[in-house]
Amino acid sequence: MRLGRVIGNVWATRKEEGLQGLKLLIIQPVDAYGKAVRTHFVAADRIGAGKGDHVLVTSGGSSRFIDKDNPILIDAVIIGIIDSTEVERGEIDGTSNWND
Amino acid sequence: MRLGRVIGNVWATRKEEGLQGLKLLIIQPVDAYGKAVRTHFVAADRIGAGKGDHVLVTSGGSSRFIDKDNPILIDAVIIGIIDSTEVERGEIDGTSNWND
Amino acid sequence: MRLGRVIGNVWATRKEEGLQGLKLLIIQPVDAYGKAVRTHFVAADRIGAGKGDHVLVTSGGSSRFIDKDNPILIDAVIIGIIDSTEVERGEIDGTSNWND
Amino acid sequence: MRLGRVIGNVWATRKEEGLQGLKLLIIQPVDAYGKAVRTHFVAADRIGAGKGDHVLVTSGGSSRFIDKDNPILIDAVIIGIIDSTEVERGEIDGTSNWND
Amino acid sequence: MRLGRVIGNVWATRKEEGLQGLKLLIIQPVDAYGKAVRTHFVAADRIGAGKGDHVLVTSGGSSRFIDKDNPILIDAVIIGIIDSTEVERGEIDGTSNWND
């Protein structure tokens, strides 16, 4: 899963079938220390993520099955809102609460 | 999903089965601010996107199922034409209407 | 789909089951203007592409199903031989016939 | 599969269905010599990997099937804890025990 | 498929189910001229590849089905040992026997 920060919303009236009502958020990928890496992408959200939240995103074919009986045309979905991480930073370990 | 801008068309007479009549558009990937990033790719379109439109593109195995009962040999499909985005830009939030 | 140019052939006697007789071509990925980008890869071909042709390539899990009833161990397949493209180039639009 | 080193943990209370109780580890991708490459990602772990371990990670749609009868929304899973590798280094071959 | 050269072995005692006895090789990706590109990865091998061999590797969800009735948790598999390639090099075409 990729680590990311929600930085915005995107709206599209004209879209493929099966995507009505799906919330679409713009994600800034970040590394384990919260630093921005690479370019933005868009992920579906069903768990109530909002701007500023640090999130876990599942990409690729797996994300298609957020409704098992009704696969839809997406390739990225937010699967968790991060409470905290514990990461070694060089020699020193650090704990941080990302969304407090 | 990737953010992109439609920059052209591509035509191929000789092709694999199941792709007859499918509109194929050339996409310039962009970031959340509309800036070009990375290299071009080609996506199928069924929702009427045209040159200059900002679009959302689903890639990978998910895109194969634009017709659930008849999966086809594609790996990218336009799933939405973007009306507008709302993205934080450093400290300041910005709203833009991409396709007006 | 990726844009590419066929630059060669590859032969392998010892291979996994199900790949006998499958033509394997070496592809140079190109951008919408035909400029080489990134590194070479190999794609299966069933539509008669040859060296110098500009082609469309489907990658990933989708390509496995070139024979729906008999999925095989590939991750890239040529799905079209490009006749022509029409791409905006900065302010000016350009039309080109890639394989003439 | 990618080679990686476990560098931390991530916790998320609010998450998608089917992910309760799944251990999520932060991975630093490494090359065959153990050198850090690219950016961090998160993988599910069911085999008891811990911080400092060198691991093999399966990514993409394959990882969804860690429970065959109950596919879940993940795109990376640790499939092995590396005991040792044997890699040529330029002209010289080297053997190393990564997790001793 | 990616082009690669086998540069080593990796051993893991503790691993996910279904991977017992599977040979795992470390691959150096190469371009069409045999030049190293990008970073190492690990692929399963069932066709007897060994160190120094140039190989074709299938990645992603396709590789999961090396045993159709018993999909396993891998994302890369060697599908062929390259005998020879024929690639244009600028204006000049070149033929090489990679594994002789």
Automatic annotation (TrEMBL), chains A, B, C, D, E:
<dbReference type="GO" id="GO:0031470">
    <property type="term" value="C:carboxysome"/>
</dbReference>
<keyword id="KW-1282">Carboxysome</keyword>
<protein>
    <submittedName>
        <fullName>Ethanolamine utilization protein EutN</fullName>
    </submittedName>
</protein>
<keyword id="KW-1283">Bacterial microcompartment</keyword>
<dbReference type="InterPro" id="IPR036677">
    <property type="entry name" value="EutN_CcmL_sf"/>
</dbReference>
<dbReference type="Pfam" id="PF03319">
    <property type="entry name" value="EutN_CcmL"/>
</dbReference>
<dbReference type="InterPro" id="IPR004992">
    <property type="entry name" value="EutN_CcmL"/>
</dbReference>
